[in-house]
Amino acid sequence: MRVRRVERGGTCVLNEFCTTVSVPLIIFCGANHNFFYNLAREKKSEESSKMSSPDEHDAVKDKASNDVVVLNESDDEETEIPDRETCQKLTEEFAKITNTDEACAQFYLQDRNWDLERSINAFFEATQHTGVKALHDGDEPELVVKVNASMFEAYGMGQPTTKPPSKLSVISWNVDGLDGHNLKRRTKAVCKIIFQEQPDVVFLQEVIPETFRYISEKLPEYMCIQGNNVEYFTAVLLRRFTIYYDSHNIIPFSGSRMGRNLIHVKAHVGKLNLHFFNTHLESGIEFEDERKSQLKSLFEAVQKIPETESVIFGGDLNMRDKELDSLGGIPPGIDDIWKICGSRKECQYTWDMQRNTNKEFPGRFKPKCRFDRLYVRHAHPRALVPKHFGLLGIQKVIMTQSYPSDHWALQAFFQMEAA
Questions:
Q1: Over the Cα atoms of the chain, what is R_g?
Q2: Is the pTM of this model over 0.70?
Q3: Which residue among the candidates 176, 200, 316, 372 is catalytic per the annotation?
Q4: Could you tell me how far CA 194 lies from the centroid of its own chain?
Q5: Higher per-residue pLDDT: 244 or 104
Q6: Confidence bin at 106 (pLDDT 50/70/90)
Q7: Peptide bond into 381 cis (omega under 30)
Q8: Is 58 a catalytic residue?
Q9: Confidence of residue 128 (pLDDT cuts 50, 70, 90)
Q10: Domain limits, CATH 3.60.10.10, in the chain
Q11: Residue 88 Cα distances to 119, 171, 195, 362, angstroms
């Protein structure tokens, strides 16, 4: 193995699909990656906004047979993943040898089963010259873009900076861990989508101990906080490279017959203090009163946060609009992110049995509901501006007739104002 250091400039691998070649661009890594990271997010936002009708959304779903979530590991034979401590050592060693950062190291190592020599060789193969290089030795083909100082200067980027990112991304997803059908493949698909999208914060619901362990192992770049350790529960994931954990606490719903609770996580990005509340409210029409009581408790918990600090909250609320109306609607200062981002019809129903075939309903009636929701409680002055709301997980998992979950995932992007 021949090892050389890389000149300043770093390497970027973009989280977007190239329009001129068939291989995907995966993630960002290396110095000065924020600009290209934002470009990919904005491009993805623009592409999603073009879906202006349910018919267009159906057209995307109809492509599923050719454009499904690809999981390259065998369902019957797990690839052996090192423990977290070993992964961290390999990450640090890669970053030291290549003079890059841990984000870059995670990208190369994860796609090559944590083989350090193979990963370093792939890195130097991709970074011989400025420009684009296709790699084919990982789990799937990928394009690596090497950027030197002159390219950054042309884009007005200047020198490397420690300035916090200006955008925040959040995903919320009920991953349906209670359904054992294709659970292993579906959980792999969830991990693959999170890895590709690189959200800063993830809210998960209906996680079971087995899937929580799997997610924690497959996504070591995230700090994983679980709301319980019994039958099923919620979890919050914080991306280690962009958002920093301060504390968390679990708030039980005393009247719940299903063990439901509320995770409150406090974190920060630069000088901006943020609070995240993730929950899974009581299920079923017959438990409407308890669900409304839980929703009221959620709003009260959010409103206790100091007005100078921002709050993002939501999850699988199992809520009907009439239930919210009976409580007087959303409290002042809180925005429904789907509504504030345009109330796009194709993103309205998050549990949609007319499109999602994971659950079977006899007869012609197929229910659809907006069970899953995300909200922002604004700080004074405002620090978060919702910019985009969309859905993920709308493609079937390869070699199955299942989607990753019976719920679509919610994805939101925010502009963060300087503190």
A1: 21
A2: no
A3: 316
A4: 4
A5: 244
A6: confident
A7: yes
A8: no
A9: low
A10: 167-416
A11: 15, 25, 17, 49
